[in-house]
Prior knowledge:
Elements: E1 7-11, H1 15-25, E2 29-36, E3 39-45, E4 53-57, H2 66-78, H3 89-103, E5 106-109, E6 114-117
Parallel strand pairs: 1-4
Antiparallel strand pairs: 2-3, 3-4, 5-6
Keywords: Dioxygenase, Oxidoreductase
Protein name: Glyoxalase/bleomycin resistance protein/dioxygenase superfamily protein
GO molecular function: dioxygenase activity
Amino acid sequence: MSQGIGVVGLYVRDQDEAIEFYVDKLGFRVHTDARNGDYRWLTVQHPGQPSFQLGLFAPQAPLLDAATVQMMRELVAKQFQNFNPCANVRDVYTDMSDQRANSGLWEVGSRLSVIRFKQV
């Protein structure tokens, strides 16, 4: 029997754009892409972690009511407002690590080196 976390879900604005990013840019592969009416269950896997799936889900019915769908779409749209792509994330991490000791305004979290700014 397999133990551990098998699927972690993320809400995404557009599932096709999410496939393009995770598969074409990060090297994941589509594990499951199943539709039931308007609902779409989409998961991807990294080749190095075949027992783990990342769910790429659009906020939609039937799992959420209309008001919650609208609220979740607005939240998903806002999640990357302060995201600044860079050519070399290691250089950015090093530069910001040097600044962190003095400012305390940001944190680095996750193995993908996602930078999250704290509100001050």
